[in-house]
Amino acid sequence: MDISLPFDPAAAWLAGGGPDAAIAVTSRVRLARNLANHNFPTHPDQSDRSSVLSDVRNAFQSLPDGDGYTWCEIDRQSNLERHLLLESHLISRELADGTGPRALAFNPAKSISVMVNEEDHLRMQALCSGLRLKDAFASVDQLDNAIASRLAFAYSPLFGYLTSCPTNVGTGLRASVMLHLPALVMTSHIEKVFRAIYEMHMAVRGFYGEGTEAMGDFYQISNQITCGRSENDILADMEASIKAIISYENRAREELLERERPRLEDVIWRSWGILEYARQITSEEAMRHLSNLRLGVVTKILDSLTLESIQRLLLLCQPAHLQQIEGHNLESDERDIARATFLRGSLSLTR
Amino acid sequence: MDISLPFDPAAAWLAGGGPDAAIAVTSRVRLARNLANHNFPTHPDQSDRSSVLSDVRNAFQSLPDGDGYTWCEIDRQSNLERHLLLESHLISRELADGTGPRALAFNPAKSISVMVNEEDHLRMQALCSGLRLKDAFASVDQLDNAIASRLAFAYSPLFGYLTSCPTNVGTGLRASVMLHLPALVMTSHIEKVFRAIYEMHMAVRGFYGEGTEAMGDFYQISNQITCGRSENDILADMEASIKAIISYENRAREELLERERPRLEDVIWRSWGILEYARQITSEEAMRHLSNLRLGVVTKILDSLTLESIQRLLLLCQPAHLQQIEGHNLESDERDIARATFLRGSLSLTR
C-alpha cells in the first residue's frame, strides 16, 4: 500500500463527462459502516479509535494488490494537506478539522475514498462524473463486500447497519448528486425546485457537503431515507427525481436562450471579463464567475473552454490548492491576489 | 449666422487638457441677464417670450461676422435633438424639456452657449477644459459686453443685475467646476469634503447641473453667493477652494497608490473587463466604469487610453448620442445593448 498525499488533483471525476454532464457534475454514493464490538466514534470513551484504525488498515492491506489503496493518517497531516484533501472532495470538513486517530484510504483514480473514524468507523464513498449513481454504488458496494469479508460490521437483523446517527441506520447509504443549476437561479425558479426536493424526501446541501454553503449555483442533492428500503430502490428513486430536476434546469436554460439571450450572454461575458481582468478575487466570487462560464460552455456561448478546464479551475482556485500552487502559505488577502493572477493567466491561455 | 445642429460632439472642452485636468474636467462660468422692460420668463404673462427671442436673435445677428454663432430654436427641435444638446452640456434640462419659444446660440468651438428664455431671458455660459475659471469668465464677459451694447439689461444700482430667482441677483454669475473625485469616494472622505464645500458657501450639483444626480464620481461644484462681491473676488475664492479640493483628491490618490495599489488596480481593471465584455449596460453603469478608467489613465495604471478618448466615450454613450450613432430611436433596453456593443468596439480598438 502506497503512503503519500494526493497533491495531484487529477481525480477521475475532474474529467467531466458521463450522462447529463452539462448539469450533473458528480454522483456520489457513500456507505456508513461501524465495526461490531467497538465503541462508535461518537462514544465518550475514545479508547477504541486506535484499534479501529489498525483493524481497518490491516483489512485494506489484505486487499488484493491491484486495488493499490493509499493510506493517509489525517492527524499526521498539516493543516494545508488536510484542506487539500477536503477541497478534492476526498474527506469531509468534519474529518479535516477533527481530532484524534483518523485516516483516509483512496484508490489510484481517487474515485473511491474511505474515511476512518469520522462520524462512523467507516465512511466509504465512490465519486463519478455525470449522473451515474448506479456505477458509483457498484464501485463502493464491491469495496464494501471486500471489507465485510475481513471485518465484522455492527448489524441488526431488524434495522440493518447500525450507525452513530439514526438518520443513517439501515442501508447506511447516502447518494448525492452535485447539480449545476444556474438557469433555475437566474429565472428565480430555484426555491420552487428546493420545495419539490424536500417533498421528495431529499436534502439540498452545500458545495462541501453537510453544513456547508452552496456556491456558484452548485447544489448537492441527497436522499434522506436510508432505512426500510433496498439500496436499489433508493437509488432508482433518487435517479428519477434528479432527472426531473435536470429537465427543469434544461427548460430554464432553453427559456433563457430563447427569450433572454442578451441577458444570458451579458452575465456570462461579464464573468469572463472579471476573471480575465480582476487583480484580487475571493474564492466565492471566483466560483460564481466560473459557474457562469460553465453555463457559457454548455450553452455554446463560450467556445474556448471545456467543462474539464472549468472543473479544474474551480478546484485549483480554492484556498489550499492555491497555496499548494504558490508553494507557501498565504494570508487571505494574499490568496485573493494570487487567485486573480492564477485565473487571469489560465484564461489568457485560452484566448 | 449658421442654422444647424451640433451633432458633431467635437466641442473644444472634449479635448481635455488645461490646468489640473487630471481632476478638473471642465470649468464653466455663466451669467444670468434679463432684458429691461420685458416680463421675466417666470412671469405668468408669457406674451413677451417671442419678442425677447427676436430681440436676442437680432442682437446676435448684428455681432461681427467672425463670431459665427449658430442659432437654434429649441421648440422646433425633436426630442432626440434637444437631448443631444443637453448631453453636450450646451443647454439645461429645463430648457430641453420646457415649452414655448426658447432658443440656443453657440459659437463654432461650442465653448460659448447662450440659452434664451430659460429661467432668465439670457443664460450665457463659457465652458473650458481644466481649471480655467478666469479664461471662461473672460470669454463670457466679452460676449456679455457685446450684447449689453445692443440690448438694455434689467439692472438695479443697488442690487446689480436682476434675475428671476433671487439667488442669482447681483453679478448673475455662477461659476462651476466639474471635478472627478473617485479617490475621495473610494477612501470614504467624500462626505467630509462635501461638508467643507457647504461651509465655503459652495454647492455640489450633479452631472447635468441643478437637480440632476452625480454619476461616475463626477461632481459639479459651484458658488452660492452672487451678490455683494465682484466677479473677480467670487472667481478667486472659488478657484482657491477648488484647488484645496483638488489637493485632497490628489492626496487620496497617492494614498491609494501607496497603500492599496492592488485594490485600486483591481477596481480599474474590473471596470475595463466589464466594458470590454458586457453585452448590455445602462448609462449610469457605463459612466461608473469609464470614471474608473479615467482614474486608471491619470494614475498610469492604464496606458492604452487618453483622457480625451474617455471624455468622448462618456459623451457618446449617453442615450441621445447613442441613438444618433445608431441612426434611429431605441427603447431603453435596446440602448443598453447598443451601448455595450459601442463601448466594446471602442475599447477593443485600443488593445
- General form of chain A: globular
Task: Provide the CATH architecture of the largest domain in chain A.
Answer: 2-Layer Sandwich
Average pLDDT confidence of chain A is 91
> CATH class of the largest domain in chain A, please?
Alpha Beta
- CATH fold name of the largest domain in chain A: Creatine Kinase, Chain A, domain 2
End-to-end distance of chain A: 43 Å
Please give the most extensive interface between any two protein chains, plus how many residues each contributes.
A-B, 17 and 18 residues
Q: Helices and strands of chain A: which structural class?
A: alpha+beta
Report the oligomer: homodimer
> Biggest β-sheet of chain A, characterized?
8 strands, antiparallel
Hey, roughly how much beta strand do the residues of chain A contain? Answer: 15-25%
Q: Report Rg of chain A.
A: 21 Å
Helix percentage range of chain A: 40-55%
